[in-house]
Amino acid sequence: MDITLPLIHDYLEVTRPPSDPTLRAMEDYGHSQNFPSLGPQCGRLLFALTIICGARRIFELGSGYGYSMYWMAKAMPDGGMVIGTDTDPGNAALGREYLRQGGLLEKTDLRTGNAIDLFAAETGPFDMVVCDIDKERYPEVFELAKPRLRRGGMLIADNVLWSGRVLDSSMNDASTNGIREFTRRIFADPGFFSVIIPIRDGLSISVKTGG
Ligand SMILES: C[S@@+](CC[C@H](N)C(=O)[O-])C[C@H]1O[C@@H](n2cnc3c(N)ncnc32)[C@H](O)[C@@H]1O
């Protein structure tokens, strides 16, 4: 199920400015491999949020070959840092090469390993945390992010509409239930103000409002 009407998606694609050459190469690679990257429209939103938040320290769980990291690092001034994570060493190596091509190596650190373990080892504070790992682990990421985000910082999660599966009561697999539980928690927590943006596969933004 497409979340965005195809006509609207096409309109957004033809009206947005073109991606830079490295991003274009990453997008072409993603299409050729059918890799579930969050794509240019969410990438542009991450770029805007990085600026709005004045982010200097970002942690991403599930970075693939660095596409979303690239957008955030590009939006940050010198001295900023995006820490990315992926279980697959091949993805991480390819990501480092794309980030090098884009002149973003100084602002990025793409690590290989389990994102949950790598995040748990960090004390923060982070300005932004981005969650794009296995969906059953989303609730755990929210709990880990709470103390590691500064007040005013944001937790951003991709795929929160999960191709519409979240609204199909016959779907009860671990991934769909993980996203449902994550969504319940981000809206129930009085220390966060959350919103879901229905672009691509749904992106949630949770601003830490409490101490
Ligand atoms: C949907 S892809 C998105 C990558 C990136 N955020 C993007 O938009 O281009 C998710 C990535 O997370 C990685 N991943 C899934 N679970 C993970 C985990 N527990 N720890 C680290 N990486 C994980 C996968 O290998 C995959 O490359």
Short description:
The protein is α/β, with parallel strands linked by helices and 211 residues long.
Helix content: 40-55%
- The CATH architecture term is 3-Layer(aba) Sandwich
What multimeric state do the chains show? single chain
What is the molecular shape? globular
Largest sheet properties: 7 strands, mixed
**Lateral arrangement of strands in the main beta sheet:** 3-2-1-4-5-7-6
Radius of gyration: 16 Å
Q: What ligand molecules are bound, each kind once?
A: S-adenosylmethionine
CATH class: Alpha Beta
Please characterize this protein's 3D structure.
By secondary structure, this protein is an alpha/beta fold. The protein is 44% helix and 21% strand. It has a single domain (6-208), classed as Vaccinia Virus protein VP39 (Rossmann fold), CATH 3.40.50.150. It has a seven-stranded mixed sheet with strand order 3-2-1-4-5-7-6, sandwiched between helices. α3 (39-53) packs parallel to α4 (67-75) and α7 runs parallel beside α8 (174-188). The radius of gyration is 16 Å and the shape is globular. The structure holds S-adenosylmethionine. S-adenosylmethionine binds next to α4, β2 and α6.
Descriptive terms for the model:
211 residues; alpha/beta; Rossmann fold; 7-stranded mixed sheet; 7 strands; 44% helix; 21% strand; binds S-adenosylmethionine
